[in-house]
């Protein structure tokens, strides 16, 4: 039977109905780029409400992102695990910010107290300015080489080993975890460049992709699946989308355009400059899709919209339509081979509730009916 797991994200850098209004967010940057208005602060009360809504809505996992203006993911997880019952938490970490041994020790404490409800998302890159703020000046290639070592060390620590490690970036003597991890967590990882795919298929457990059109996403997925098979590795795959719903398709696109209705030209310029300077393959590809679809109200395929990519540098392509249309599009991506789907939107709380009420049940219903017809 086809199974799909739903993930969402906590807005730990702030939340809003709109993106790109520089007056509102005072030019603040987010984990995924520039331009998310923060008229809802990421207070402990609000983020707790988001986590509890995600659990109630049928999401299995809540991603806690990393970035200059985000609440620390591990700190957030330590609080949220105590205020939820079954929800898992995917903490985003950067190798250039925390040593693998220190991260593993912090992780093991939170995971122990949460009864194994915390996973790890290793994020290699980010905005150059943010990386430099952390003293990370490595080249793109070297960052991925370091990430390979970082994940190798985390996995050995999580598996309870005591070991020496002599790498290009890390040298350890007698490394171990004082507090053992009962079940080694899956390592989530993403990246579109050739070296990123090599690292993913060598050491990651879940490969994360930003959604695009069905055709381009399939090309990206197939390239990684092929590489993993050549290495006799079987990965899990996750695809990510924004979501904008409406009672009709027309109403949904009106809602989508409302989100970017207050975009400041300076924010658009900053996003373009950020993309040029970032150098990330995935970011550049989404930006190009946005530019090419500008004359078509940013529609790149049926119910797939790139309007948010004007402002957001990360997961920015949106599924826009009625709940039935969005559910059908999700099933099409599940059919490509994705067993995990990350969905989010603006404002996060209301979108999470809406997806849980109107979309997730439809996806399960479509898949179940199809299975019945095959019996």
From TrEMBL:
<feature type="region of interest" description="Disordered">
    <location>
        <begin position="15"/>
        <end position="38"/>
    </location>
</feature>
<dbReference type="GO" id="GO:0004497">
    <property type="term" value="F:monooxygenase activity"/>
</dbReference>
<dbReference type="InterPro" id="IPR036661">
    <property type="entry name" value="Luciferase-like_sf"/>
</dbReference>
<dbReference type="InterPro" id="IPR050172">
    <property type="entry name" value="SsuD_RutA_monooxygenase"/>
</dbReference>
<keyword id="KW-0503">Monooxygenase</keyword>
<keyword id="KW-0288">FMN</keyword>
<protein>
    <submittedName>
        <fullName>Alkanesulfonate monooxygenase</fullName>
    </submittedName>
</protein>
<feature type="domain" description="Luciferase-like">
    <location>
        <begin position="35"/>
        <end position="339"/>
    </location>
</feature>
<feature type="compositionally biased region" description="Polar residues">
    <location>
        <begin position="15"/>
        <end position="32"/>
    </location>
</feature>
<dbReference type="InterPro" id="IPR011251">
    <property type="entry name" value="Luciferase-like_dom"/>
</dbReference>
<dbReference type="Pfam" id="PF00296">
    <property type="entry name" value="Bac_luciferase"/>
</dbReference>
<keyword id="KW-0560">Oxidoreductase</keyword>
<keyword id="KW-0285">Flavoprotein</keyword>
């Amino acid at each position: 039977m086809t199974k799909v797991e739903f993930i969402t994200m906590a807005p730990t850098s702030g939340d809003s109905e709109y993106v790109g209004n520089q007056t509102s967010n005072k030019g603040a940057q987010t984990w995924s780029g520039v331009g998310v208005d923060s008229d809802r602060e990421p207070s402990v009360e609000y983020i707790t409400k988001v986590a509890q809504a995600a659990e109630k809505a049928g999401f299995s996992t809540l991603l806690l992102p990393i970035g200059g203006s985000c609440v620390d993911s591990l700190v957030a997880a330590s609080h949220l695990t105590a205020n939820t019952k079954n929800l898992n938490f995917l903490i985003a970490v950067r190798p250039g910010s925390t040593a693998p041994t220190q991260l593993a020790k912090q992780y093991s404490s939170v995971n122990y107290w949460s009864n194994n409800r915390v996973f790890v998302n290793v994020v290699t890159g980010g905005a150059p300015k943010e990386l430099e703020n952390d003293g990370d000046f490595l080249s793109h290639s070297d960052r991925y080489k370091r990430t390979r070592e970082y994940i190798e060390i985390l996995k050995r620590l999580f598996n309870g080993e005591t070991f020496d490690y002599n790498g290009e970036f890390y040298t350890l003597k007698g490394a171990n975890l004082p507090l053992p991890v009962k079940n080694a967590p899956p390592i989530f990882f993403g990246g579109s460049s050739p070296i990123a795919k090599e690292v993913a298929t060598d050491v990651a457990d879940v490969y994360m992709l930003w959604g695009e059109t069905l055709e381009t996403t399939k090309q990206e997925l197939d390239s990684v699946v092929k590489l993993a098979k050549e290495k006799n590795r079987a990965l899990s795959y996750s695809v990510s989308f924004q979501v904008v719903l409406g009672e009709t398709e027309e109403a949904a696109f009106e809602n989508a355009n409302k989100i970017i209705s207050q975009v400041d030209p300076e924010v658009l310029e900053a996003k373009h400059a950020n993309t040029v300077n970032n150098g990330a393959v995935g970011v550049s590809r989404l930006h190009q899709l946005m530019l090419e679809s500008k004359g078509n109200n940013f529609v790149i395929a049926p119910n797939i919209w790139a309007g948010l990519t004007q402002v957001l540098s990360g997961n920015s392509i949106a599924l826009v339509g009625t709940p039935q249309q969005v559910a059908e599009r999700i099933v099409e991506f599940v059919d490509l081979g994705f067993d995990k789907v990350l969905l989010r939107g603006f404002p996060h709380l209301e979108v999470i509730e809406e997806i849980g009420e109107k979309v997730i049940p439809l996806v399960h219903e479509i898949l179940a009916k199809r299975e019945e017809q095959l019996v």
